[in-house]
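Re: your question about P2X purinoceptor

S., sorry for the slow reply, the queue was backed up all week. Below is exactly what I fed in.
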Amino acid sequence: PRGPAMRCSPLNLCEYETSKLVRIKSVKLGSLKWALNGVILLVICIMLLWNKEYQEYDLVVSSVTTKVKGVAQTNTADFGEVVWDVVDYSPNEEKNSFFVATNFIVTKKQKQGKCPEVPHYGTLCRTDNDCKKGLWDIRSHGVQTGVCVKFDVTTKTCEVSAWCPIENTKKPPRPALLTSAENFTVLIKNNIRFPAFNFIRRNILPEVDGNYLKKCIYNQRTDPYCPIFRLGDVVQGARENFADIAVEGGVIGIQINWDCDLNRFFNSCLPKYSFRRLDEKESNRTLYPGLNFRFARYYTENGVESRTLYKAFGIRFDVMVFGKTTVFIDWLIGTSCYSKESQQVYSERKYESVQDRQEVKHTHTHNASLHLHPGLLLV
Ligand SMILES: Nc1ncnc2c1ncn2[C@@H]1O[C@H](COP(=O)(O)OP(=O)(O)OP(=O)(O)O)[C@@H](O)[C@H]1O
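Result:
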C-alpha cells in the first residue's frame, strides 16, 4: 500500500508497489472456482489415461540357446542303411538360430586328381583347342588342364584338376532323405531381462516341475509353456508342409513374445509362442528357392587324403524374442504405494533446498560472533 509519507520525489523514486489479493467470501463464486479446477483436473486425468502416460515402458534384453534331439534311419541304393543323429544333421550352433538338415546330395570318395568338368556353359569341348590350361571361373569345380576329355558317351568337357569325382547331381532327392526329421524335438532356453526394472525371467517357468519337462511337448492349447517343440508342429504352426519344405530347405521363425505387466495388481509375465515361414514359400515361382550349403568330412584311404562331400538342404529355425513391459510411473507409485520413508528419499533427490541469501547472511553474522569458521556454515 502506498502512503503519502513514502513519496519523496516527483519521479516516485521512493515508491514500492505490491499486488493485493481480495478474498471474496461467496458460496457461489467459491463453488464455481472449485468446479473449474475439478474439470481441468479431470481433463488432465483423461488425457493421461488415454495416452497411457501413467505407465513406464522397457524393452526386453534376451539370450537364446537351443538343443535338438532325435535320430533317423535312411536306406538308399547308394549308401545302404545309415543312422543319422544330431551331430550329423545339425552341424553348427548359431546365435539365436539352429539348422536341421533334411536332405543331402552326397559325393563319396573324392580325391585330388584330374577328371572331366561337369557340363555347363563354357566347359563343353570338341578338341583340346577349346580348353585353356589354368582357366577357371566362378562356377568351375577345378582348374582346366588344357585337355578335352569324354564326360559320357555323348559329351566331352574340358579336364580339370579338382577333387574328383566332381559332384554331379543338380536336384536334391524327392522325397527328402530325412523327412522323419519332423519328429525331432528342440529344447529352447530363453532368458529375458527388463533392465530398467531389473526384472529377469526364463521360458522354463519356476512353477514347472522336472517330471513334466521330461515328457512334455509344446502344444498351443494343452501345453503352452512347455519349452520343448516337435519340429513338425513348428512347421505346421507356420502353415507349411514339412515333407515339402524338407526337400529344398527354408527358414522358419519361432517368435517368443513376452508381454509383461509388472504392475502391482496384475503382475503377469509369460511367453507366447508363434511360428511363421520367413523365406519365400512359393518355390516354383521363385528363382533359387530353399536353403543349402556344402561341407565335407575328411579321412585318409591308403595314405591318400580323401573326403565325402555333402550338399545339405535343410530348415533354419530363427528364434526371435520380442517383449515390452509396463509399470506405473513414479508419481503414481509415490503417492499411493510407497512408504513415507521412500517418499522422503525420492523427494530429497527430486528437490534441491536452497537457503534464502538474506537469512544465510544473518546466520553467518550470528555464528561469527560465536567464533565459528564461516566456511562450515555454507556446507
Ligand atoms: N530337444 C530336446 N528334446 C527333449 N528333451 C531335451 C531336448 N534337449 C534337451 N533335453 C533334455 O532337457 C534336459 C536339459 O537339457 P540340457 O541340455 O540343459 O542338459 P544335458 O544334461 O546337458 O542334456 P543331454 O541329455 O543332452 O546330455 C535334459 O534332460 C535333456 O536330456
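Confidence is low (pLDDT under 50) at residues 1-5, 333-338, 366-379. The longest helix spans residues 27-50.

Happy to talk it through on Thursday.
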